[in-house]
Amino acid sequence: MDIHHNIILVSLLFILMTINKGVCYGDDLRKEFEITWGNGRAHMLNNGKLLTLSLDKASGSGFQSKKEYLFGKIDMQIKLVPGNSAGTVTAYYLSSKGSTWDEIDFEFLGNLSGDPYILHTNVFSHGKGEREQQFYLWFDPTADFHTYSIFWNPKNIIFYVDEIPIRVFKNLESKGVPFPKRQPMRIYSSLWNADDWATRGLIKIDWTKAPFIAFYRNFKATVVAVAAAAKNFSKISEELNGASQKRLKWVQKKYMIYNYCTDIKRFSHEFPPECQ
Q1: What is the 3-state secondary structure (H, E, C) of 81-139?
Q2: Pick from 75, 76, 103, 175: most CB atoms within 10 A?
Q3: Cα–Cα–Cα angle for 225, 80, 16, rounded to 5 degrees
Q4: Which residues, other chains included, contact 272 with Cβ-Cβ below 8 Å and sequence gap of 6+?
């Protein structure tokens, strides 16, 4: 084992010692996920109750679900990279394969110490995205674990943070808007160097702070496997009640910092049909 991997393991052990020992962890993540890249930079710890990704100058790391899913709700508790994480991106998303893939994204854009993280969301259908909304969070996502959820059915996609809805993307195929509803997706996550995009190239990653580490636990999937999707189609429903609608409006009014539906420069001639 080289010096680099020793540094990562020592860092992991130190941070594990600072995590609240009274927390009850979820099921064994080894049953649901597999580490797919990173050359030893990702780890399953505590008998699969904790998963970590790390990034250094040589490489990031990532994992994916063993199953594919079609509709339902997925929850994951994530604790993001602390300190000066500018230029790093922690991505957690659903995606299918192929040139006309579908995708539903959470991407957490790192920050300079003291600045807020940016939560970047997007929806792809038939290989086309460009439906970004971005938010600040109302808490420090590096100080503790928080639950990030995607609900997906044939009518709506709802993004949640700690069970508070922050975004709803409706099925508006009647207006010619593609909606992801036919392709099963896997769950993916990665921690990677995105300083040419996340900071628009203005701030480069400070590699003296590496390794950068993100933590995952308490995965929950209230979904059906692909083979059973048609049979269970009618059971998968989600509507926002009055209280949830108020929370959604609160988040979008106070914490939304970008909405493609209001970007006049980008859509100077005509806004996408779902924005009209």
Answers
A1: CCCCCCCEEEEEEEECCCCCCCEEEEEEECCCCCCCCEEEEEEEECCECCCCEEEECCC
A2: 76
A3: 95
A4: 130, 131, 177, 260, 261
Q: What are phi and psi of 248, to 5 degrees?
A: -60, -45
Residue 238 bears catalytic tag: no
Identify whether 103 is a catalytic site residue.
yes
- Cβ atoms of 169 and 252 within 8 Å: the answer is no
pLDDT at 20 over 50: no
Query: pTM for the full model?
Result: 0.88
Which of 32, 34, 68, 107 is the catalytic position?
Answer: 107
* Burial class of 212 by CB neighbour count within 10 A (0 to 12, 13 to 18, 19+): buried
What is the spatial distance between Cα 80 and Cα 68, in angstroms, rounded to a whole number?
Answer: 25
Candidates 156, 192, 143, 146; CA nearest to 71 is 156
Kindly name the residue from 32, 68, 103, 238 that is annotated as catalytic.
103
**Residue 22 contacts by C-beta under 8 Å, 6 or more apart in sequence?**
none
126-158 tens-digit pLDDT: 999 999 999 999 999 999 999 999 999 999 999
DSSP helix/strand/coil, 43: strand
Peptide bond into 211 cis (omega under 30): yes
